[in-house]
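User: I'm curious whether this sequence folds into something compact or stays loose and floppy. Could you predict its structure so I can see for myself?
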Amino acid sequence: MEFSTEAILACAVRGITIVLHDPSGEAIARVVGHAGQRSELRQRVIDLLAQPEWRPRYQVWLERTEQRIAAMVVKHLGAPRELALDPQRLRQWIGQTGTFFVGDSTEEATRSRFRELATAWMADHLQNLGFGADSEGWQSGEFDLGADLSRLFALRVEPYRLEWLQRRHIWTVATRREARPVRPEMPALIWQQAEPAVSRAGRALTHALHRWLVPLG
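Assistant: Here's the prediction. I'll summarize afterward.
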């Protein structure tokens, strides 16, 4: 069987090792596969979970990352600066502001839908990085990487939802018209319009996790 250079490189990127033989069957070359971040991040998470003190270390990373995200969201939205130190209060402030713009039921519905979209995006991203739903240990009572990253990601993308609700509110006030109900498909459309910013934010989370794990290995 013959392989093109492109095919050999594609196998290497996916972590597949190729051994080349001459016509007599003797091995003459070996191309060792290296899957890059896909396999490396997965292995580093496995190594972390093998450490007795993984839980407090991981919790500290989650809390610090959430605070960094809160600071970015506060800056993006022009929210009170003290909220950067308290992500939970920031979430409450976002909810109250959204309720002011569109009412409680619409605020809750759009927030829930954005949270679903963030969870689905992160699940697909982790799947691409080798963290399948059937992978042992990724979803357990003690460790659920998908849920943890999705929660952080959902906060990171809140500005796009709140800015949309604000635009609706401004239009309603300016035109002196009664606010129309939000169509069910609108949150997904707003999410799509925010691409590629939301994808960059999601990838930044796993990159941050990777950078944190490197010294621990």
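Summary: The chain has two domains: 1-34, 37-216. The first strand starts at residue 18 and ends at 21.
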